[in-house]
Amino acid sequence: MTTLEQKAEFEKWTIKLRDDICSELEKIEEEYDHDYLLPGQFRRESWQRNDPTQPDNNGGGGTMSVLKGRVFEKAGVNVSCVQGQFPEQFAKEIPGTSENPTFWACGISLVIHPLNPLVPAVHMNTRHIVTSKSWFGGGADLTPTFEFQEDTKDFHQAFRNCCDQYDPNYYAKFKLWCDEYFYLPHRNEARGVGGIFYDYVDSGSFDTDYAFTRDVGLTFLKIYPELVRRHFQKPWTAEDKQKQLQKRGRYAEFNLLYDRGTKFGLQTNGNTEAILMSLPPVAVW
Amino acid sequence: MTTLEQKAEFEKWTIKLRDDICSELEKIEEEYDHDYLLPGQFRRESWQRNDPTQPDNNGGGGTMSVLKGRVFEKAGVNVSCVQGQFPEQFAKEIPGTSENPTFWACGISLVIHPLNPLVPAVHMNTRHIVTSKSWFGGGADLTPTFEFQEDTKDFHQAFRNCCDQYDPNYYAKFKLWCDEYFYLPHRNEARGVGGIFYDYVDSGSFDTDYAFTRDVGLTFLKIYPELVRRHFQKPWTAEDKQKQLQKRGRYAEFNLLYDRGTKFGLQTNGNTEAILMSLPPVAVW
Questions:
Q1: What pLDDT is recorded for position A96?
Q2: Which residues of A are catalytic?
Q3: pLDDT tens per residue, range B91-100
Q4: What share of chain B in percent tops pLDDT 70?
Q5: Residue-number span of the structural domain to which A199 is assigned
Q6: Cβ pair A144, A192 in contact under 8 A
Q7: Is B281 touching A (CB cutoff 8 A)?
Q8: Does residue A54 sit within a domain?
Q9: Residue B252 has pLDDT above 90, yes or no
């Protein structure tokens, strides 16, 4: 079982990853060459989660970081560490809760919607969850409006390299999982070009699984800014922008109709603003 | 049980109501006084529903009518008449399907998102459903960004008058149902200012229940254009528009997270474009 020290360590690392990602995104905001739009900066807002099953109602909480900038029209980075008991109805879907609905969960989740339609949107998440079992989950996936083959290739290669250090089966399995998960059946289309998605990772060693999850975070921190810098100075047309807004409509459909994280958050009395921070700044239908 | 003739009559009336509503909305588009924006007109598109349980795969179909205009930024009016068998999982939620999953359903559903933030958005639906039971459903509800008390009062009064002709309990019951149904628990807020919502209406007389549902349609056709004409020439500010776009974000959240009609449509292999026609033309988060 995950010890108190390991939980504290995971939380500390999660916050460090958040800080590093926010710094890098702000750096890109600074780099962007523009006459009158000013570089965006993250604003933070913390929230508490009430849980009547816990001492002092203390169900943990989190911090939202939101940047509305000139490169990133909306970048939302959430960190949350929560504990308590799952509602009975929901507990059935979670491993290790049949005897005891108590849980602890900590993670980072981010969604970035760039202003320039040629820069891909992205989602990344890493998390550690403890019930009577414990496991790691997470992943990262890319949603371009206009796909550049080179970007798709490099994004996948980066996560393949990350996975291959830990288990020869991870990449194929987690790539497939991502393709299956981020799919809109009512549109017969994928949300984006994929990446990796994993859950219930429990090799028996906290250290190994934690190292893998750290590498997922670091891989994201390296590859996404690279892709942004490939395109962020390129000009775009009104038609490009319209296509991006339509693509974002699909993104909103996925997150509201199907996303497990959204469902998990809303059903465990999470912070609505934080949960729905993934929604695009503007979308059209 | 509803006879074949009654089904045909209901379908014919549904199409007539659609035509009358579309004509009235186009008339308002013409009336609007504007220098260079041209009046919008409805465009129609039909679709077929495949159902492998039916002869020739004929699961019925429908027609979408969409207007993108200068008064109505997006007005979508759907008529659909479908028949077939419910998927097993879904059938459990529908009365009269425990022995036999066969159904027939016909109705009109419309959502109007006006351009002017001072003009309220609206939703209206009437339907007749036949399984081993048969019943009528429908309703209408108003979603202003800026509430005018007079509008709310008159909208409710119109539907109260309609209901009171049929059953002294209808209005109170259907108003409450509307308030409970169009509610966003994760926001602790109502979608709009309500109206009426009814389902499973089966007094034992097709004629009476059909007359009630016809009156709901006609009540809508009278009161909503009246409310539009109260405000459609008024000027608005950029801030008003931004508030409307935010309100529309909530509208999209409701329809994708909670709406039964959306769920019914997507789970019965309905036409995705028609089902999601209710989504706003532009929304922000």
A1: 83
A2: 123
A3: 777 888 877 8
A4: 100
A5: 4-270
A6: yes
A7: yes
A8: yes
A9: yes
